[in-house]
């Protein structure tokens, strides 16, 4: 198994981070015109009476990042419906549910489940973040791992309130709001992992903690440039475990493609804003849509 912490953070909205990418050869129209300005990637598909936009998001950004350009504004303003992965409107309720679901029912506590070597590295990581080593003792390994993936970003100045979903929600006005998954479904992706798998994931997170901020800095820069090929390469390099690749991405993307196909049966304009791996690489949303005969076009300007 090899699931790097940076990818886990990027795939879990309840862990606060996502981004957008697409494979280099997935879309015939994915060739940047010479006069197209650098900007986050946006795609469109539809039929005679339905238009669906696909936009990748970053849930946590530094304050002041300008990503809402004319293309995105035009697509968003034309849309009757905003679709996101989960309902992020009540952050307190979401955090409370996640913490409850992550509770560890084991008298040994989290650190008691670790080998001596793993516990030593883990303690050093928490101390380096300014946390007591017992901070997550009452929680399952996956929860500690997700927090260790995100805390360095928050300490580096990344802000959930500056994230794309929050900004879109604030602009949504009277648009219909739809969510592709429940928070319970998203939590189950990690909470359903076997205990040993979770502990290995936590070890990998600890080992990669110093690389989290530099990697996300690079990903955000590439996202802002709209370099879908490079961003897909970064994202795909982080996933080498077939089980998790299918669990985190391909299976969920298939469910979302089913939703999109059903939505195409109804008239209207829809703006779908989802996270990174879902628009990246083999099995991505675009890849599966095109396999089913739908034409997905990138909007450059």
Automatic annotation (TrEMBL):
CDD domains attached to this UniProt entry: Tiki
InterPro entries per UniProt: TraB/PrgY/GumN_fam, YbaP-like
PROSITE patterns per the UniProt record, alphabetical: PROKAR_LIPOPROTEIN (PS51257)
Pfam families per record: TraB_PrgY_gumN
UniProt keyword list: Signal
Keyword Signal: yes
Top-level taxonomic group: Bacteria
Signal peptide annotation: 1-28
Name of the protein this chain belongs to: TraB/GumN family protein
Source organism of the structure: Alteraurantiacibacter lauratis
Lineage, highest ranks first: Bacteria, Pseudomonadati, Pseudomonadota, Alphaproteobacteria, Sphingomonadales
